Amino acid sequence: MLLLFSDAFRSFTFPYIYLYIILPFFNYKIIPSRKKTFKLLNDHLAGRDSSKPLEVLEIGIGGGANLEYFPENCNLTVVDKNKFFEPYFKQNAKRYPHINYKRTIIQCAENMTEIEDNSFEVVVTSYFQCSCDDPEAVVKEIIRVLKPGGKYICMEHVGFPENTIGLYLQKLAYPIWYLYSNGCTPQRDLAKVIKRAGFSEVICKN
């Protein structure tokens, strides 16, 4: 009943559920995706002066599962609306000295008022856009805070194609899945949202 009626209780319990139940169950698929995604980023950063810190923003960082894949010499800023992830993230961040952790901003990504325009060379989201309230607003904010020529990398599970049994099952499971996964909406077509957002180039890979 608490899960059903209390957003605060769901926010409090979700970090443990996600990090110790959901993530281990899906890691066999997620870890290869992380490696592929960050290889793509590093390929696009080839030739950068690594003596200068890379300004990185990760939105919805959770427990910091991406940290081991970050490029050398990063200044990392974190935005997450769920403050209960922060102790898990800070403990994990100690293992990665190549990252200079700057601060965590507890705020919704749809309105990142504490971040100035053109602040970051890289923005990262992973398995986050499925659970934000307004993906279009989030992407608009990402474009705003990226420096000219900046990179946005996004890993997501998305909806099956239209008129498929997979999409039907996602929609069928949605009410219960949403409740127990802290707002995840599995049937979203996030590739479409990103493609029409105004980026100069979009690369989508399955």
Automatic annotation (TrEMBL):
Q: Where is the Methyltransferase type domain?
A: 57-154
Indicate the secretion signal residues: none
**Which molecular-function annotations from GO does this UniProt entry contain?**
S-adenosylmethionine-dependent methyltransferase activity
Q: Name the Gene Ontology biological process terms.
A: methylation
Reading the lineage from the top rank, the first entry is Eukaryota
Q: Which UniProt keywords apply?
A: Membrane, Methyltransferase, Transferase, Transmembrane, Transmembrane helix
Chain segments annotated as transmembrane: 12-31
Give the protein name, as stated in the record.
Answer: Methyltransferase-like protein 7A
Which gene carries the instructions for this protein?
METTL7A
